[in-house]
Amino acid sequence: MKPKRRQLNSQQRSFLQRCHFMTAGLLLFAVVLSARAVHLQVFNKSFLNEQAAARHLRMARISAHRGTVTDRNGEPLAVSTPVDSVWVNPRELLKYPDKIPALAVSLDLERESLTRRLTRNAGKEFMYLKRHMNPADAAAVEQRKFPGVYLLREYRRYYPVGEVAGHLIGFTNIDDVGQEGLELAFDHWMAGTPGKKKVLKDRYGHVVEDVESIESPKPGRNLVTSIDLRIQYLAYRELKSAMQQHKAVSGSVVVLDVLTGEVLAMANQPSYNPNDRSQFIASRYRNRSITDIFEPGSSFKPLIIAAALESGQYQPDSRVNTSPGRISVGSKVIEDSENLGRIDLTTILVRSSNVGATMVAMTLKPSLLWEVLSNFGIGRLTSSGFPGESAGLLSYYENWRPISQATLAYGYGLSLTPLQLAQAYAAIGAGGLRRPVSLLRIDSPPIARRVVREETAQAVLGMLETVTGPTGSGRKAAVAGYRVAGKTGTARKSAAGGYVDDRHTAVFAGIAPVSDPRLAIVVVIDEPSAGEYYGGAVAAPVFSKVASGALRILAVTPDLLVDPVKQDRTTMMARRQ
Fold it and tell me: What is the 3-state composition of the chain as percent helix, strand, coil, each rounded to the nearest 5?
């Protein structure tokens, strides 16, 4: 007999129905969830990855290390050191205004100023708070976990020798881009190429992980200058001392290697420290040796004599009658301090005769005179490549009037830079060969251009040696143990209405040693006001000290074993007997 089925009451049936419904619902939800997961993970995978990357993957810039600048012997003149810059996402920080005062204290900023900057840039996602902080100080700020505040690794330029070579090296801006000097001229060389990498950031913008290196940073190339830092220090010291002694407005010293055309030293006053941005004033940081022009005065006469010898109209022993000590050219009367009478070309330079130089220049064809001066580099760029270099001024001979050719003979009516004058004297020292000026170290001498015949250059060099003798106007340029040659120059400065008598430029340009020229040095002292203003008294002593030290630094063999002063005294005593 079959057992009776148990009858379920209404409550039990209701409970079972609900269980079946819930089970079915859960099963359906599981199926839908699985289907959605399959849809997302399989069919929409690429889309979701792109969306995640858009929210959390970022392309970060990797700063490139700027190349180092050194002197010819490897001594650092400009280096880049790692620093950290603090930046902020204003949107994030402004959500927590109570954090701003503490942040201002940490960065040594004024709270009100920081608040104003943040509110003005509230719509931006990036704003620098403080650039180029010491990494340790920046890390201390980062440890305080200010919302929206982050660090960025950068590089800051540092100049170990400060103002000693500041005019030549120049400086970069806060973004490490060259602005002046060699930093500007060779910015493309030293800048390097920044790198790129993908990083994973959290919702607060913090880097969680470096995902992928896209492009490695390429550091900039190093720059080796022609400067010898030992000679640079020497030139800087002696020029600054002379500036203080003679209370001058400005001054320059240029030292060229006669054999290669390299600039071994280039100093200017007033100077500036490129590490101190508050000193970035054009009147202080411009390189006067290359950008400023001046009238060279009598230091230009050797080039006139060289042109005269090249013309064939004159020989080294040719004589000129300067009586009665003056000459009229048009309405202008050119005079010497005394009547020198009939003198040779050497005496014209030794006694710095304006009348003699004028008489010689006026007999030369203007085209030949212009050609020789132009070949010496007057009125032309020196090919140094320095930003802002001046070519000076030498007007074309077809525009000359008689008075133009006359004043040209003693260094008026034209303008040049100290570097141009140094290049011209270097050509005399090199036997009449003019080499391109180089601010970079070179391994072999460049191709030279013949300016004048070797015999002409040797003759002028011999005349210039007499100028630095015991009776010459450049006797204070003498260097113990070495034969030196050179010429003084004292030029009145022009002003409204003509030339003035109380403002001068003192110049000395010279070559050493005479037996085997190695250095061409030009010293320019602008507006000395302590009493003396002649080139022989103001600029020549600077030449002597710089040449003396530089020749010994370069281990140049002495070629004068007898002191010139003692030798002259012995000669005078012998004549008296």
Answer: 40, 25, 35
Q: Is 345 helix (H, G, I), strand (E, B) or coil?
A: helix
Furthest C-alpha separation in the chain: 173
Q: Is the pLDDT of residue 351 over 90?
A: yes
Cis peptide bond upstream of 513, omega within 30: yes
Residues contacting residue 558 through CB under 8 Å, at least 6 positions apart: 481, 482, 513
**Rounded average pLDDT over 113-135:** 86
First and final CA of the chain: distance in angstroms?
173
The answer to whether residue 63 is catalytic is no
Q: What is the CATH number of the domain that holds 68?
A: 3.90.1310.10
CA 524 to chain centre: 19
- Say what the pLDDT of residue 509 is: 97
Q: How many angstroms from the chain centroid is the CA of residue 18?
A: 90
Domain boundary among 192, 224, 256: 224
Task: Based on the fold, state whether residues 237 and 220 are members of the same structural domain.
Answer: no
Which residues, in sequence order, are bridge partners of residue 433?
450
Angle at 60 between CA 128 and CA 194, to 5 degrees: 90
Full domain range(s) for residue 435: 229-576
525 backbone dihedrals φ, ψ, rounded to 5°? -120, 115
User: What does the angle CA 78 – CA 418 – CA 337 come to, to the nearest 5 degrees?
Assistant: 150
C-alpha to C-alpha distance for 382 and 385, rounded to whole angstroms: 8
pLDDT of 572: 46
Rounded Cα distance between 362 and 477, Å, is 30
Q: What is the pLDDT of residue 21?
A: 83
Residue in 128, 462, 72 with CA at minimum distance from that of residue 262: 72
- Of 226, 298, 353, 544, which is the active-site residue? 298
Q: Is residue 92 part of a domain?
A: yes
Q: Which two tokens stand for residue 575?
A: 């004549």
Peptide bond connecting 270 to the previous residue in cis, omega within 30 degrees of 0: yes
Question: What is the count of structural domains for the chain?
Answer: 2
SS3 string, 262-274, reads: EEEEEEEECCCCC
Q: Which residues pair with 267 in a beta bridge?
A: 253
Residue 248 token pair: 């001058």
pTM: 0.82
Q: CA of 151: how far to CAs of 210, 234, 539, in Å?
A: 16, 43, 53
